[in-house]
Amino acid sequence: MNSKLKDLVQVSLMAAIIFVAAYIIHIPTAGGVVHLGDCMVFVAAVILGKKRGAYASAIGMALFDILSGYAIWAPFTFIIKGAMAYIAGAILERSKNEGIKIQLIAFLAASIFMVPAYYLSQVIIGALLTGELGLSAAFVYALKDVPTNIFQVGSGIVIALPLLKALEKTPVLHNNRE
């Protein structure tokens, strides 16, 4: 199979898997949603590597936002989830993806990026939607979603690690990364 076509198929399939993981179980919160998409963002980084994992994560999670009534979040999600997969994938590629310990470090690094990135996104959205309240009110209002974002990404790590361990026994994790 042509290399570019294979990449397109793999990124498309992983984007669909990420979308489905987020869509099947998602719980609306005061300013956003908690879902299982993050676990598949981490899986995408491991299986596809930093670049293709980033594309799949950005597309799959932005699609979730658009099709689930959170379209205002889609541009932020596209950047944040793509960057999460890229960060995790870059750490994994640099360390040759050796074991659960490096996966945990990579996923935590991506998470440390995600939580403040969504906080700042909520500040921007809050400032735009509540222009009369001002920027300082948006900074305070955005704090409400920090705990749910930590829970969501933490759950993603807790689910992704054993899932990846199980996938080690399959051809999925072999000869697939760049």
Structure description:
- The chain has 178 residues and is mainly α.
- It contains 6 helices and 2 strands.
- Strands 1-2 form a two-stranded antiparallel sheet.
- It is globular, with a radius of gyration of 16 Å.
- 38% of the residues are buried.
Provide a short characterization of the protein structure:
The protein is mainly alpha-helical.
The major pleated sheet works out as: 2 strands, antiparallel
* Helix-and-strand structural type: mainly alpha
What is the H/E string?
HEEHHHHH
- The portion of residues assigned to helices is over 70%
* Radius of gyration based on Cα positions: 16 Å
Record field, number of beta strands: 2
Mean pLDDT across all residues, rounded?
90
| N-C termini distance | 16 Å
Strands of the widest sheet, in order across it, are: 1-2
β content, as a range? Answer: under 5%
Shape: globular
- Taking pLDDT < 50 over at least 5 consecutive residues as the criterion, the unreliable ranges are none
Considering the chains and any ligands shown, give keywords for the structure:
178 residues, 2 strands, 75% helix, 3% strand, globular
Could you give the topology of this structure?
Blueprint: H1 3-24, E1 26-28, E2 33-35, H2 37-67, H3 74-94, H4 99-129, H5 135-141, H6 146-167
Antiparallel strand pairs: 1-2
Helix pairs in contact: 1-2, 2-3, 2-6, 3-4, 4-5, 4-6
